[in-house]
């Protein structure tokens, strides 16, 4: 019932919305009306049902009493007929008594029959009531699902109201909404509601007081601008609603099922794994899946180098000439990897030390490649989910297995080759775009090089 | 990209210099007029920023390419500085190697982009102010390079903002002066304009996440 109330409130408040989402509001209002009617109907039906059930139980009680009485009388009849047989003398009076009793029995039997009919009728009535009750519940469920969809659409709509007035940098973004405080109030209310299910969501108040919100990956968020704050909250809400949606649940179920079956050997079932990964790896499985995929890719190297390879590399770091060659560049980049993440924002913190160890260890592992800017992002990302050793193997897998050996080399030959291939592909597959870029003299790789080198680290939102 | 209106001029500027010379800070300081305590991520490839300024009655859009300083990206730098009208060679006043790198870039530019004006820019001036001993290259040496390149020399601090605006304003005004002196020059081929994408095409802020 609480949910129904809340959605009703939500729907009622929709009535006061602005013109931008008028159409949605109209049908929201309609839904709210329907929902209210249904609810009223439901309540009255329930009352009715309760009354009928009361009546039924009192009838049943009566029936039991009557049956007791009948049994009692029958007993008495038996004993009296026995005694009558014994006392043949007083036949007249006893036969009269007998008649009375038979008369009473008949009356009681009639009554019994009537009451039985009544019980049957009531049972039937109850059945129809129950059916209509289920139907109503079903309707409420559909309406609630629809409300959830509206909510998601609403926050997505608000998110898409972002504008970049100077047109180029994220810092200039502003959210343009009409209708004064209306949306702020509504989003606050939605957030309150969502926080009951997911208390990890930030509150409007804390963020608007310039408090720092740390999201589930450890990234800090702070907002100077109120409207951008709303935008961020909508982003969080949308994420929340999606995680509540049925399709997402289905996806999660499929993952759970897959992990239960192949949790120890995910890499040997690529056919099933691929589509699952494309739908997104749930956070709770990410570590396990990444780890296994990396180990699978690096199997030969790991077997050759032995189980303590990473630890050995680390212990030799302090006096390794290979490490010292890159030590300065790496140390300059440590703090420039994920400055907004709490794990990587303090010098000397575990995240920073791990990052340094992994990058230096890699220089010793593969001196021909050494350290290349961009690796720090890959390792930082891996460290958000895995320990240093697995992050090391992730870098090995990326730099030597997933990419060609030349990808990160001294001239980034592999990366440059990839850019050329991308350009050729573009010319082949999207000739119009290719010709347009040629005409306005834009070099595609100025945009795409870092997508490839840091594996989209900065190019797509983090949770994707 | 700033949308160019009628009569506005496009100017491509490239920032070159050794890693950690403070190129990103300089651009961000100029574009956003602020310096943040939290460091910027190191640049891969290059980052783009733009600003619009008014000089001598003309509006100029500065298209600034902030390149990665790492050695490995050197071989790719050409795609960023190709067709640039101005280059800011950044070097860290406290790092001797970074000055050598600036010298390297000046040679590279003179070979490949002879029409590109060079602006020499020593960064982290505030650190030298606090500790004069930290200056890594003698001023005379820097000045002599500037003379050789017929380049302006600036000492900037992105922390305090010292001389940051001056660098970019000077670049813009030189650009406008040059155009005025050569009125017959055709519109440069490297200036470009992206038409406003229609709603369906533009993804922009990813709303689904």
Automatic annotation (TrEMBL), chain A:
Keyword Signal set for record? no
UniProt organism field = Mytilus coruscus
Q: Where does the record place a coiled coil?
A: 28-55, 98-153
Pfam families named in the record: RabGAP-TBC
| Annotated Rab-GAP TBC domain residues | 280-464
GO terms, molecular function: GTPase activator activity; small GTPase binding
Q: Which domain of life is it from?
A: Eukaryota
Give the UniProt keywords, A-Z: Coiled coil
**SMART domains of this UniProt entry?**
TBC
- Keyword Coiled coil attributed: yes
Protein name (record): TBC1D2B
Automatic annotation (TrEMBL), chain B:
InterPro entries tied to this protein? P-loop_NTPase (IPR027417), Small_GTP-bd (IPR005225), Small_GTPase (IPR001806)
- Pfam families linked to this entry: Ras (PF00071)
This protein's source sits in the domain of life called Eukaryota
Q: Which UniProt keywords apply?
A: Nucleotide-binding
Q: Which PANTHER family does the entry link to?
A: PTHR47978
- NCBIfam families from the xrefs? small_GTP
Q: What's the name of the protein?
A: RAB24
Species the sequence originates in: Mytilus coruscus (Sea mussel)
Q: What is the lineage of its organism?
A: Eukaryota, Metazoa, Spiralia, Lophotrochozoa, Mollusca
């Amino acid at each position: 019932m609480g949910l129904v109330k809340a959605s009703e409130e939500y729907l009622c408040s929709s009535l006061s919305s602005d013109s931008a989402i008028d159409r949605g509001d109209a049908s929201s209002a309609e839904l709210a009306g329907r929902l209210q009617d249904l609810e009223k109907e439901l309540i009255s039906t329930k009352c009715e049902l309760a009354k009928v059930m009361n009546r039924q139980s009192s009838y049943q009680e009566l029936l039991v009493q009557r049956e007791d009485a009948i049994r009692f009388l029958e007993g008495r009849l038996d004993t009296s007929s026995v005694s009558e047989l014994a006392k043949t003398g007083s036949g007249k009076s006893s036969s009269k008594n007998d008649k009375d009793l038979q008369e009473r029995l008949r009356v009681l039997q009639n009554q019994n029959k009537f009451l039985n009919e009544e019980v049957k009728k009531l049972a039937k009535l109850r059945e129809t009531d129950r059916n209509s009750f289920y139907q109503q519940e079903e309707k409420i469920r559909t309406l609630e699902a629809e409300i959830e969809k509206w909510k998601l659409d609403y926050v997505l709509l608000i998110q898409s109201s972002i504008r970049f007035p100077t047109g180029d940098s994220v810092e200039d973004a502003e959210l343009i909404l009409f209708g004064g405080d209306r949306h702020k109030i509504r989003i606050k209310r939605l957030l309150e509601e969502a926080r009951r299910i997911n208390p990890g969501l930030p509150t409007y108040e804390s963020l608007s007081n310039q408090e720092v919100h740390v999201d589930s990956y450890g990234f800090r968020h702070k907002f100077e601008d109120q409207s951008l704050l709303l935008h961020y909250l909508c982003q969080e809400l949308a994420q929340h609603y999606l995680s509540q949606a049925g399709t997402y649940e289905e996806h999660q179920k499929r993952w759970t099922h897959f992990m239960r079956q192949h949790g120890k050997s995910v890499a040997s079932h690529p056919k099933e794994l691929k589509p699952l990964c494309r739908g997104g790896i749930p956070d709770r499985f990410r570590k396990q899946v990444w780890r296994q995929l990396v180990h699978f890719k690096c199997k030969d190297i790991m077997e050759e180098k032995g189980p303590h390879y990473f630890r050995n590399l680390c212990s030799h770091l302090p006096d390794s000439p290979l490490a010292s060659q890159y030590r300065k560049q790496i140390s300059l980049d440590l703090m420039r990897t994920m400055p907004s993440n709490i794990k990587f924002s303090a010098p000397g913190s575990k995240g920073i030390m791990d990052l340094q160890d992994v990058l230096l260890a890699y220089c010793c592992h593969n001196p021909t490649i050494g350290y290349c800017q961009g690796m720090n992002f890959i390792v930082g990302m891996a460290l958000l989910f895995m320990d240093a050793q697995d992050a090391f193997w992730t870098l090995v897998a990326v730099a030597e297995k997933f990419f060609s050996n030349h990808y990160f080399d001294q001239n980034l030959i592999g990366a440059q080759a990839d850019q050329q291939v991308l350009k050729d592909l573009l010319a082949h597959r999207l000739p119009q775009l290719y010709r347009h870029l040629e005409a306005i003299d834009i070099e595609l790789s100025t945009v795409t090089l870092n997508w490839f080198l840091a594996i989209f680290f900065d190019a797509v939102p983090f949770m994707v | 990209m700033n949308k160019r209106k009628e009569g506005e001029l496009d100017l491509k500027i490239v920032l070159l210099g050794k890693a950690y010379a403070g190129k990103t800070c300089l651009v961000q300081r100029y574009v956003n007029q602020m310096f943040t305590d939290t460091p910027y991520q190191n640049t891969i490839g290059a980052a783009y920023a733009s600003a619009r300024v008014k000089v001598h009655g003309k509006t100029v859009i500065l298209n600034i390419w902030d390149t990665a300083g790492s050695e490995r990206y050197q071989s790719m730098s050409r795609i960023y500085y190709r067709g640039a009208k101005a280059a800011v060679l950044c070097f860290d006043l406290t790092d001797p190697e970074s000055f050598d790198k600036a010298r390297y870039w000046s040679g590279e530019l003179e070979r490949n982009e002879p029409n590109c004006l060079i602006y020499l820019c020593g960064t982290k001036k505030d650190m030298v102010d606090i500790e004069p001993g930290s200056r890594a290259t003698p001023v005379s040496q820097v000045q002599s390079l500037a003379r050789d390149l017929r380049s302006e020399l600036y000492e900037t601090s992105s922390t305090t903002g010292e001389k940051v605006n001056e660098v970019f304003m000077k670049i813009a005004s030189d650009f406008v002066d040059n155009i005025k002196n050569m009125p017959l020059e055709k519109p440069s081929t490297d200036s470009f304009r992206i038409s406003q994408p229609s709603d369906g095409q533009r993804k922009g802020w990813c709303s689904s996440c």
